[in-house]
Amino acid sequence: MRVGTVREIKNHEYRVGLTPESACELVAHGHEVWVETGAGLGIGASDAEYEAQGAKIVPDASTIFAECEMVVKVKEPQAVERAMLREGQVLYTYLHLAPDPEQTADLVKSGVTAIAYETVTGPGGSLPLLKPMSQVAGRMSIQAGATALEKAHGGRGVLLGGVPGVMPAKVAVIGGGVVGFNAAQMAVGLGADVTILDRNPEVLEKLGIHFESRAKTRFSSKANLAESVAEADLVIGAVLIPGAAAPKLVTRAMLKTMKAGAVLVDVAIDQGGCFETSHATTHAEPTFVVDDVVHYCVANMPGAVSRTSTYALNNVTLPHALAIADKGWKAALRDDAHLAEGLNVHAGKVSYEAVARELGYEHTPLATLLA
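The chain above was modelled as a monomer; its predicted structure follows.
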């Protein structure tokens, strides 16, 4: 199979779909790998490094989209990229379709076979292709929140860990999954006063055992959530419903109870955000203020640490890319029920139920498309 990767064009996105090492693996399996010139510069990988691993460097993305049977990316295709997608082609990348009707419509119209990293499953309902970026984003959320709390950036002027004789900042982490756990780890490490909210008693028990007295756990009822948000200097939104839009847990009314200069970091913004007042921002302009509360809502947080993120991502995406290239997409999905969950759109049909429900499409069962 001819597999291609392009330079990411989303604002301040420096990751790349395939590292030189991943290109080497695909070539070793007998496949052609085409790489747009400069695609790896954001992770410090030159065209020469890709060529040394057997990849072919091509001058522009249009050549990749026109000639490659599978395109491997990181972020969702932008409008100019979607216009180049075609029927019979496999697109393998993050999509986050539920809050993005324009992208979904373009993918449906193109006829492409779109496999989304974020809905590929693992044992026990895990999301292994989302996990490494959730780990990165969770850890980065505390860095970003700490910076936004500085007075020069619009915050309260509070140091997360405090100093002897001065209380540390209060951090509320909404959601105890991968993002929330990693955010809490970082916040605890900096000496903050951390509370983690979740609705799953088993999750709360595991968090309690792990953190012991270093972080508090609290059941995420409406009353408890409202109280925790009002008391917090920094709130991390770490809620995920696989493939679906995130629930709006922190309302506009709650903002009025918060301290002036408090900070909200919405890690769920790729799925529409879990704060009612959120809208996506970029690394160029990461924050905005509503009711004196600073909002950080960058939709591609891991892109800022592109080398770490790209290698972590390739560790989990490459095995499936090899399976798709070796067997063809249909056989690969038939052989692996977890990979099959990644199929969101094929030949004008929406196959992921949560996306179809959110955006009003007829849901075409996966079994029908694989028959």
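The radius of gyration is 21 Å.
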